[in-house]
Every structure is written in structure tokens, then in C-alpha cells.
Design goal:
This protein is an alpha+beta fold. Helices cover 24% and strands 28% of the residues.
């Protein structure tokens, strides 16, 4: 495949969080970019949605993520400045739990190993400063000063708009049916056209297995709910930081009032995995919402425990909850970013940069070896 016959240098397949950021960073690096999205830009049928997402540097999943998070925070600022949109709200992020729980140990390691600005709040101080949370005996808080909230839909839209401003050609409502590596490049097949590019980046989120069938990603629903507070002022961003909590096997997270009327909460692993992304339904029985209501009733007594609204999103999960990031062993001209397991959005800009590095340079300065597709039997 010669350069004269190429439609672009790189095709980005899927323009959600990871894809829009990859298109932006690739275009910013000077690549000729084609992007494909089966829905519209900033749609609600993937992993990037819900009006707000947590950003935390003190990381429950492990201190090895902190270098990625540091760079991501810088890039969130760069994207906000370039787009003129408020994408990051610096509320801080509060982790709550018993100090010897593995997630809290990882938070402590994150802040100490990487010298992050933080506060450790003993039980009584935590209860006094943040009475919105009902605590168990012995629980502490770690306040991550650099944490906050992100605006996911606006972020995807901003990244796509920046990519277009830099020359990327993004095709909305254009489903990719196949990705065919070979002949020194990649052919991207849609219903209308066959596009020839030098390399492809697959960022299809929960839809990944439709294009890369052997990638070990399971589709899981993410249920988000909004609850009305009795005292609205007690849950504003100035008094109620974003939070993440592990108590008695309950993994609860949430954010302050951003819509003028409600606190958003989420609860991990409420529903069973889906056969595929096309099986998502947003019609939930009461039994599906009951764990969230029960958790709010137990831990956030100032909220009315019945949600005033809910929505359902989805993401791709790997068995080890570590993303798949890298070139496919059997097809090095195809880079895959998938399986972010419900905690990837905050790092989307840096993964977009990593996708650009891997695609244009063949490597990256960031340590993503543990995310290699080679740990699975992955083909196209």
C-alpha cells in the first residue's frame, strides 16, 4: 500500500472518549486522520456519559497509574483552554474506608510514593468536616486535593471539534463493518466505502468485540442514579467533594450537586454482564435500583433514598480490570484501546496521546507493558 493510494495516515474507529482523544492527539501531531463513529459525536450508548465523572490522582487501583493521571490532568487543562469549555471542576476527591482495606492502602501508596497533595482525615475529623457521610467505626478519609469532576459529553465533543479544527475528517453515523490489515496497511470497511490507511486505532469501547472478536473484553452495564438532598446547600461543590467509598463490600461513588437539584451516585457491579453491547437496555426493574437506594440510605442519610432519575451506560471489562492498550501481535498496524473497566475516562487524554505515540512512533514513554494485548490471544 503506497502513500499515494492512502486515504489517510490513521483511521480511528469509534469516537467516544478514547477515540475522540486519539483523533485530537494524532491530528495535533500532524497525522492525516479519518475517524468513524456509528452514532453521533458525544452519544450516550457507550462508556462516556452520565454528566460527570470522577477524576482522582490518589488511585484505588494502584500507584502505578499516577504518572498517567498527572499527564491526563495536564491534558484536560490543555483541551479546556483550546476548546473554551469548562471540562474539569476542582472539587477534590475524598476516599473513605478502613485504613487497611486494599483500595485505601493503594490510595496511601499513591499519595506517598508520588508526593501528591492530600489530607488524611481521622474518623472524628472526617465526621466533623463532612457530616453528609455516615461513617462506620474506624473509617478514615483521604482527601485528594488534585481530584475533581469531569464533564464527559462535553469532553468528547471538545476533543472531536479540536481534531476537526486540526484537519481530521470525522464520519458520524458511519458504522465500520470490518478492519482488514495487510498489504503494508489497513483497509477499513463501511457500508458505503473501503478506506485505505497506513494504520488503524480501534477505540470502540463496549463494541470492541464486534471488530476484534478475540479481545478478552466483557460488556457490563454501569448504572448511575441521582438523589435529591434535603439541604441542597450541603451538597454543593464547595462543601461536598467528589467521593469514592468502600464499606462492608459496598463500592459507592458520587459527586456534588452540579445540575442544581441532585447528587449523583453509582454502585459498582449492580447488574450482570451483557451478551454484547447491542443487548443494553435502560428499562430497569426496581430490584436493579434497590442496592443503590439501600447504599444511599445507609451512608448518605441527607439524601432522599429513592432516585429521582437513573441512566444506564456500559463499558468493556477485562478479567484483571486492566485495559488493553497496544498493537495487536498478529497485526501490528492495528492499535487497540479497550477494556477500561469503568475507570478509564479520567485518563482518556493521556491514552489518546499514547495511541498517537504507538501509531506514529511505534512506542511510548509511558509504561503500558501490563496493558499489552499479547497477554490475551488477540487477533483481527
Amino acid at each position: 500500500m503506497t502513500t499515494a493510494h492512502l486515504d489517510a495516515d490513521v483511521a480511528v474507529v469509534g469516537l467516544g472518549a478514547m477515540g475522540s482523544m486519539s483523533a485530537w492527539r494524532l491530528a495535533r501531531a500532524g497525522a492525516r486522520v479519518l475517524g468513524f463513529e456509528q452514532f453521533g459525536i458525544a452519544h450516550d450508548r457507550g462508556a462516556a456519559g452520565g454528566e460527570s465523572r470522577l477524576f482522582r490522582m490518589a488511585y484505588h487501583e494502584g500507584p502505578e497509574y499516577v504518572p498517567l493521571l498527572r499527564r491526563a490532568r495536564e491534558l484536560w487543562g490543555e483541551l479546556a483552554a483550546a476548546s473554551g469549555r469548562e471540562l474539569f471542576l476542582p472539587t477534590g476527591c475524598l476516599s473513605i474506608g478502613l485504613p487497611d482495606l486494599p483500595p485505601m492502602v493503594n490510595v496511601r501508596r499513591s499519595v506517598t510514593d508520588h508526593d501528591l497533595e492530600h489530607e488524611v482525615l481521622a474518623h472524628d475529623e472526617l465526621a466533623s468536616r463532612y457530616p453528609q457521610h455516615r461513617l462506620h467505626d474506624g473509617e478514615i478519609g483521604i482527601h485528594d486535593v488534585a481530584g475533581g469532576m469531569l464533564r464527559p459529553e462535553l469532553a468528547v465533543l471538545a476533543a472531536a471539534q479540536q481534531a476537526r479544527a486540526l484537519g481530521a475528517r470525522l464520519h458520524e453515523h458511519t458504522a465500520v463493518r470490518a478492519i482488514e490489515p495487510g498489504d503494508g496497511g489497513v483497509t477499513v470497511v463501511t457500508d458505503e466505502e473501503r478506506y485505505r490507511v497506513r494504520r488503524a486505532v480501534v477505540t470502540a469501547g463496549p463494541w470492541t468485540r464486534e471488530l476484534v472478536p478475540d479481545v478478552a473484553v466483557t460488556v457490563k452495564p454501569i448504572v448511575l442514579t441521582w438523589f435529591a438532598p434535603a439541604d441542597l446547600s450541603a451538597y454543593g461543590p464547595d462543601r461536598f467533594p467528589a467521593f469514592i467509598r468502600d464499606t462492608d463490600g459496598v463500592h459507592l461513588f458520587g459527586c456534588p450537586v452540579l445540575d442544581g437539584m441532585s447528587v449523583k451516585c453509582g454502585y459498582a457491579d449492580v447488574r450482570e454482564p451483557l451478551p454484547g453491547a447491542r443487548d443494553l437496555t435502560r428499562d430497569l426493574p426496581d430490584s436493579a435500583l434497590r442496592p443503590l437506594s439501600d447504599a444511599v440510605r445507609r451512608f448518605l442519610p441527607g439524601l432522599h433514598p429513592e432516585p429521582i432519575r437513573h441512566n444506564v451506560y456500559m463499558d468493556g471489562y477485562t478479567a484483571d480490570r486492566t485495559a488493553v492498550v497496544g498493537a495487536l501481535p498478529a497485526a501490528p498496524s492495528v492499535v487497540v484501546l479497550a477494556g477500561f473497566s469503568g475507570h478509564g475516562f479520567k485518563m482518556a487524554p493521556v491514552f489518546g496521546s499514547i495511541a498517537a505515540d504507538l501509531t506514529l512512533e511505534g512506542g511510548t514513554a509511558f509504561d503500558v507493558a501490563r496493558m499489552s494485548p499479547s497477554r490475551f490471544d488477540v487477533a483481527v
